[in-house]
Batch of 3 targets.
Target 1
Amino acid sequence: MRIELTVNGEKHLIEAEPEETLLKILRDKLGLTGAKKGCDTGTCGLCMVILDGKTVKSCQIKAKKLKMNKVVTVEGLGKPGALHPLQKAFIEHDAVQCGFCTPAMLIVALDLLSRNPVPSREEITKTVSKVLCRCTGYIPIIRAIESLAEENKRKLTSKNKPQT
Amino acid sequence: MKAFLIEESVKKLEVVGKPVNRVDALDKVTGAAKYTADLYFPGMLYGKTLRSRYPHALIRGIKIGEAEKLPGVAVVLTAKDIPGEKRFGVVIKDQEVLVSSKARYLGDGLALVAAVTEEIAEEALKLIKIEYKPLPVVSSPLEALKEESPKIHEHGNLIKSYRVRKGDVNKGFSESDVVIERVYTTQFVDHAYMEPESAVAVPSHKGVVVYGSMQHPYSTRRVVASTLGLPLSKVRVIQTNLGGGFGGKDETASIICARAALLAVKANRPVKMVNTRSESMLESYKRHPYIMRYRVGVSEKGEIKAMEINLLADGGAYASTSPFVLWRSTVQATGPYEVPNVEISSKVVYTNNPYCGAMRGFGSPQVNFAVESIMDELAEEIGMDPIELRLKNAFKNGSETATGQVLNGHVVSIRQILRKARETSNWEGKRKLYKVQKGRLRRGIGIACCYRGVSLGAEGKDFAAAYVNVTEDGGVIVACGIAENGQGAKTVLSQIAAEALGVPVDYITFLGSDTSIVRDSGPTVASRGTIMGGGAVKEAAVKVRMKMAEVAAVILKTQPEKIIFKGGMVYDKENPEKHISFKELARRCYKKTINLSSIGWFRAPEIYWDEETGMGTAYFTWVYSANVAEVEVNLETGKVKVLRVYAFHDPGKVVNPKTAKSQVYGGVAMGIGYALLEDYKLEECIPKTLNLRSYRLIRAYEMPEVIPVFIENPDPVAPFGAKSLGEPATEVVAPAIVNAIYQATGVRIRSLPVTRDKILKGLKER
Ligand code: FES
Ligand code: FES
């Protein structure tokens, strides 16, 4: 079957098997290897991407359910020299060790901050809990996201402050 | 062995000790970093492994005809197609890349398929017909030792045993006021690195190039070369980004790389093999479960008089590094305490369970759980505070370990650490506070501490190599045999190179591990990356610096000894006005055809070990740690919540405070998993937890607050004083939690992991 996906703003016409997963399409057909495969049971969350504005485990989405969808993967965030603030925060807070969970962590964080620019620590922790990480103990990841939440809060309050 | 000048390790450091960002983070946050499974080559095939249906069985015949006929299948291989050595193993050559006549656990591979897609390869596996003769299984180490039990290997079921005898335990026990005896047990633990094992093999002229995710590219090269019957020089192993290792990607990685290489050479096409999670959990080696019997005698004043220790470890189907793991457990079994009379017997045996090998801690998490639990049980018995009891017996400079090693040459900081722990965690206040509690939720605080031999010790040849090359424009290329496992080795070693050359860290380009570029440096295990790799990098960098200093001296009209390198500039020490930039100096050296590349070699000091008596210098230096944990237990549900963990470590010198803290966070997370969540279960040698649902890893919402505290005592044998941290970070978390649970509930858990059921049962019996 033929599907049309707009991935990170770029349109692709793809020939796929109905049972093929979105993860496989992204990795094998589009060369976007940021999303990883870490399990066979939909548990690890390492394959997270944003599909039509919602985070999904791309290993759980079959091609037959897709048509004309919009997908955002880690490759769509920012490039060296023009990094997304989240990427910068991950580097600065040492939220990256082996890096295998990093693309998925960035995706769930991006989604959270786009819905709620000033999430609480609880909300951040809940979001980070969607993805497994064996290296970092999650603390640096939570702090990286929190640093952006704080920055957003500062921006919001300074904007709301009446001009003097 | 060259001792690094103390002067150098304490001088004002420019790069070492600074919170530098990880050098490989940029690639990882953009998704550009390639892991093995992310590699694609034209014409690439996909390989799959057929594994045994029985945990113990003779293989009577394998029929591959049907599988070969399936359209899309390129090759099907079995053990008889292996051109080289059939067996491999670091200590005992008892393992096969594909088994030929006997399967010894459920993870054993019998046949391989390469096909144009993964799906076809899987289809083909189903068409392979195996004739088995199932054999009775040996499912526990106690059974393995019985005379009448089936023999798993021809040489019997014992892999290795050790004994340590010091003083006279009988005398020690007769001098004791209190003697207690307890049995502690631990579980199988999976490394559960997020990236399952993977390899891509590409045939090359008369040889093969293997890209893989392994911790020890050189041992992989050894196995691939011997299996394929190739010289080492024809096998090039390139480590791609590694999605986690924790000790687990050695043999398992060698196996998948050798299999992919076999298929690739036979098909003459690139072959990719990626294990699924369940294949990984089925096949990969685990952390050993132990049965540990401790008998300890103390005086009423709290002086330990004698320890009698019996360790029995389940090695599973193959020896792997079991002898080394057990050796470390044996040496460290008494904990960091002066014990005048010691008797230790330890054994590791074969069973038909998954085999066990290296995992973060390497034999220490088990014995630390036992000895640190019994220390608390003793404290309770004689009515003494647990830290007080530890301080009474803890090592000091000049103390003698159970194996007769006198601790000197470095600061024996365990007492310093214990005192710091008591003060930082408000130990006394909290102990008192939690003594009187009411209601459903009960809190407790607990401590555990340890000492750890650095690097391999008598576990193996201990050396590392590095290559440093300063380019004509003043860039610095560094390569080292120590592998980046995600722990930050590249960053820390870049810092060490930058420090030695007096340049900013961004001058350094650190190459990935490639066995054809740098010499074998031993495995990146045993928390040896910084001390061994750092030693080699530093030596190579210093050699280059000396050559550059000579040229600089001519230019600045002074002597080479007076030249200093700092912040990318090169000065005359006595006359700083006279200077030249590092880059300009490199250019001048190039013009003068001076060779600015060098090989560094770092060898660990000799150690001595007597197998018979179990006495000797086990490790050339040691590190010390303690953890304090605070927990809250729900008496109705038995649920344990870890509230806070203080982690105290003396790694010598912290090379990078940022990455060091992260190592601690990750280590604590893994330690909590060990204490409360992770349990690789088997029934009659059949694994029951082959996915990440049934095998539970900690998630973000379960993480406590973690407070790392570093107590630095630079070690003169280490580069810039820096020793190790990776394993200490995880190895005393579990006993600290278990001791805290006891304070909260009065329930003493002697088998890991702590579950709700065990707590509820304990509460009932209390
Ligand atoms: S790969 Fe694990 S959830 Fe998708
Ligand atoms: S950084 Fe390794 S899994 Fe998260």
Target 2
Amino acid sequence: MTKNPTEFSLTLDGKTVNFTPGETLYEVAQRHQKDIPTLCYDPRLESFGGCRLCVVRLEGAKNPVASCTTRAEAGMVVHTSTPDIETHRKTLLEMVLSENRELEVSPLRGYASQELTELSERYQARTGRFEGKQSGESRIDDTNPFILRDYDLCISCYRCVRVCAEEEGDYAISVMNRGFETQITTEFGGLLKDSDCTFCGQCVQTCPTGALADKKAMRYSETPGEIIKTRSICTYCGVGCSVDIMTKGEQIVGLQPAMDGPANEGALCIKGQFAYDFVQHEDRLTTPLVRGDDGELHEATWEEALDKAADGFKRVMRIHGRHAVYGVASGRTPIEGDYMMQRFIRAGFGTNYIDNCSRA
Amino acid sequence: MSMTDAQILERYAREPAPLLPVLHAFHDRDGYLSEEALRVVADGLRIPIADLFGTVTFYHHFSRKPGGLHGKRVCTGPVCCRKGARELARSLGAETMPCSGRCDDPIPVLEGHTTLIGNTVSDLVHKPSPLPAPNPGGYQECVFAGIREEGRAGLAGYRKGGGYRALEKALAENDPEGLIRTVTESKLAGRGGAGFPTGRKWQAVRDAPGEPKTIICNADEGEPGCFKDRAIMDYDPHALIEGMALAAFATGATRGFIYLRYEYPETNDILAAAIGEAEAAGYLGDHFKLYLRRGAGAYICGEEGSLINSLEGKHPFPRNRPPFPVTHGFEDKPTVVNNVETLVSVPPILRHGAAWYRDLGLGEHAGTKIISLSGDVARPGNYEAPFGLPLHTLLHDWAGGPAVEGGTIQAVTMAGLSGGFLAGDDLNVTLDEPCIRARGSFLGAGGIMVFDSSRDMMAIAAEAMHFFAEESCGKCFPCRIGTQRLTERLTGAAGPRDKTAWLDEVADLGSTMKAVSACGLGIAAPLITESLVRYFPERIEQHCAS
Ligand SMILES: Cc1cc2nc3c(=O)[nH]c(=O)nc-3n(C[C@H](O)[C@H](O)[C@H](O)COP(=O)(O)O)c2cc1C
Ligand code: SF4
Ligand code: SF4
Ligand code: SF4
Ligand code: FES
């Protein structure tokens, strides 16, 4: 059934536009390339309405309304950028800057870490205005190897808490106290490792100030070179999360989830997020090794190594039969490698004893 | 014998809104909330432990230190501070608490579940809250009409004065739509601050799809300088129950809550007894089950969305609106949230008719408003004033004028603290919203604090803003940061010394807070600075110079 288009249309900055019932004003405006500023917004999460930067003028309403929490209604007349609104946005940013200790933070801290910096540049928000007490206390005592909890930079947008609950389902962190004394915490104020945290890194990647930061990536803050992002797929399990591998020159410096990854939409687990060191690890084998008659491993050519392996398999088959062979493919093999592996075991040895270490 | 963990959970887990009573039961039993207790509660009610921990820290009165429950807490509201509350707290070695709703008495001190009253350590005594004096203007009353009758708090006493007659009549006539029409025609509007027409609210809940529907009485009364709901509940609890039962009948609601502020422990007992009597008499029961819930010290929990979140056991941030509680309230079902005074006005309206109630107001104004009057007046207390009464009449004729012989009234607050100050010529207002709103303030819940010319308005403004900063929930940026920055500028702890820059920052903070804050707290708080700047510019000059 087609609806009369005027039934679902509103006026956006003077133009009549259509909307789908249920859409928020922010979403409608996004579709029409309106660049409404936000800090507490993450499209994956329920709208929260905290930062108030997204306010728009709605004709007939006494005060500006938060576009992220206001659903579109037929006949609304909306202005996304009036001089008044822009003044409030700038004042809000200057208020935020007054509690935040650092504006320049390394992009290695996390995916969204530049949001506040970029907005304050866009609005030319002045630092030093509204000076006063600082909010948030960093947890330098939390020495876990993955996540820096630098709450001196926290602006209480609660994206971390909400992503942990809504996307990750872990409910490891929450909001303690109230008002200006608000602090992000775990149960009883403890360390992340003693909480329900799985170190998925979701909170790090949604934090708009870098208050939560990727400690592993930050090891390379001082490494010279531009950060290049290369889209890839996580090599661990069968989900196939999209990732952006960050490099400086030849060095992998970190990894960020792809927000537009079809399988993960920005999510990763601890392995995908943090366990990439093996790629450039010094213990990694670079040539085949073959055990000699002396019992020691010796560098060898692929020819020698493969011959040695084939001999071994054949001997086992001869003595114990074909079902004595059991193939386990690595979780890190690509799908083509997995296919080859099972052909090798099934057709090559004639057994169905084939498995994969990550059957997720 | 005290209850075991399992018994506590067993007692409440099947009731709606179990978290607050369960936490109170542990708090009362152990004298504080231990980590073990919170883990048991989290398990029993299936709340993530980090969430529960965070939420418990939100409330002022839940103590996490052994013995904390029994520590003394001294009211340091604006009126009590002028009586020496800070000195009293120091001599007692006690904690402080925001205005605890007893401004018509000497300083209240909460000790466990007992309210002590006194000015010094040696004269602290437990005594009942003051009964409203007979109407000094001789006006006919609605809410207080029967409150001074002997034995009124008991069922028999209440019935003797015509109590429950309106409910019985409503049930016999069985015309809920007609009942709502009468309430609408009476022009009764919310007495909790926002002034929404009560009949329209009830009709909206009646019309909204979804069941069960809920009636919530907002008895959180956290606004400094407001103590009217306490007087009503202490002396006329059955009137509230009858009002709620009528609301339930009108809307089809089958369950109700009274959300009572923590600082009224005696009121809690009075309400519990009255609910028991009303249940035994059949006014309450399976058709309308009424639950009493105590808050735990958070002004913002008087905001209806925050209140509902608090009942549901969630972090008590206000909710985004729309949707409103009338369609998506408690457990996302249609819900009436009404103030105590609003609900208590309904039985007399139904007994005497809509026209009777409307005519109680002066001029074109309909009905009455309880004013909690405190501070530097001779006779502080609760007064039921007809809308439209001149403020001057209330202050001077009814309350006896300045407390000190020869004193002059310098300023008053409106809506407790939320309406900021009125001073100078604006003390000529009449007590009704159109007149007071025209002065950039509002009457709201009707708390008026009076300050004579010996008082330093800068200090009072700083205390007021400090209150808002401490009570800001922290959900939205303009209020969380703005209340803090305005406090610092008023105390002088931070901010520009140059007057022009000072005024500029204060005005910018205020205007953004007023325009874009997520709830009424952040919107109202800058009225303090706005009115200070308007009425006391020379005091600001001094402040910046010092
Ligand atoms: C910060 C804040 C505190 C409030 N505190 C109270 C309160 O203590 N009691 C109350 O009845 N209403 C309070 N309100 C108003 C409620 O949100 C709501 O409007 C009211 O309870 C509705 O009842 P009414 O229509 O009968 O007034 C408060 C509002 C705000 C914004
Ligand atoms: S790393 Fe993941 S589980 Fe841990 S707090 Fe952050 S979002 Fe929650
Ligand atoms: S840590 Fe980051 S994401 Fe979490 S509340 Fe603070 S600023 Fe927001
Ligand atoms: S205005 Fe203040 S109290 Fe209200 S939601 Fe915002 S921070 Fe919370
Ligand atoms: S994006 Fe709407 S309030 Fe933050």
Target 3
Amino acid sequence: MIGIVGYGSYIPLYRIKTEEIARVWKRNPDDVIQNSMMEEKSLPAIDEDTATMAVESSINALKRAKINPKDIGAIYCGSETHAYAVKPDISLIGEAIGAAPNFTGADLEFACKAGTAAMQACMGFVKADYAKYGLAVGSDTARYNLENVTDHNMGAGAASFIIGKKENEILAEIEGTFSYTTDTPDFWRREGEKYPKHTERFTGKPAYFKHTIAATQNLMENLGLKPSDIDHAIFHTPNGKFVIKAAKFLGFKKEVIKSGFIVNKVGNVFSAATLLGLSATLDKAKPGERILMTSFGSGAGSDSFSIKVTDKIKDKVNLAKTTQEYLNNKKYVDYATYCKFTGRLK
Amino acid sequence: MAWRRIKQRNCLIGSECNECKTLFYPPKLKCKKCSSSNLSEFKFSGKGSIVSFSEIRNPLYGFEKQTPYTIAIVKLEEGPMLTTQIVDFDKIEIGTKVESCLRVMHTEGHSGMIQYGTKFKPAE
Ligand SMILES: [Zn+2]
């Protein structure tokens, strides 16, 4: 058996409303909300980055796991906005949570799916007995050119998962995972460039939907699952609409995406997006329920997971701050403060 | 070298005198109370309260972009006091309960190191 023994979210305190961004660029906020479903988004404080947010969510995961941090033998952190180009976030994370010095790991990058790739890496390590526990993190301070309408979607946050294999510790069993990867250049960022670029309409059908659907269908076929077996589903959230469309195409009930649907309040948090959705879902899921999670990373690939919640979940949820508590605790900023906090003032 | 202090700065690790049990932050090599050199690492919980604070408008070098920012003396629940920055607050006063968080202290330009450190924010 392999599964999650601890999980945690982190969303910074600050938010900016879609209306406030629309005001500056003279857009109709209703049109933006209509197109992307984004009502507001999170942004980092001036002194927060991918590494500091990853530490916060990992501390929450440790609070729920109640394990000795020295037993964490591997830490992988996925992000598109690692604090340094060269110098790992995971060494800072490992030191800050007390796992150092006896652990391995690396910072990973695969557009928005590096967080779930981190989870798979930890599963392999733990299953092969190279580590007692693995810590997988997705953390990002997503950003785009300010003048581009895509900037409305760019959020900040982190989520962490501690993977273990002791049956009496597992709060959600990972029943299986399946990945689907092709060389599809739908979105990229070149070395030294501040912001990514994407190929407009190309990002939908041949990229997001093709990979998300293929990974999910293959996994479900392998495990013999029908759409009616799924109680909660999480898909990557470049915006709100893609998720609804993916769930519908797969024949899932409309309600399944509800517990993990937070994109309209935080934005697209890149590598943390599906993982934050999973963390939010675990806060609400009941023992015996099945969660289907499929990430998507441009370039392009999807990792799909089937996760079954155990009885342990009941004792774990309240040991750390829930995603909903993070969502409720917020402070709105104006556009100028948004620019100051995200380092856009020169 | 600054990196030698990473553990004390990022992880709130101080020291405890093994003879008289006095706690220190930042860590000491020699006990200030009983002069013993028999001390070991001690990790503080990160919980404390504000003893005094001030808003800084003439920043230190490297802190210009964060201006204005708030500096406070925080008394840790285990006893020692430290000078630190308070973040993520609307209103604080003397006695406000705070908890530690890891944040960026300052960055050495675009190509230099990112210095992290412990700051405090109002406790939940
Ligand atoms: Zn002493």
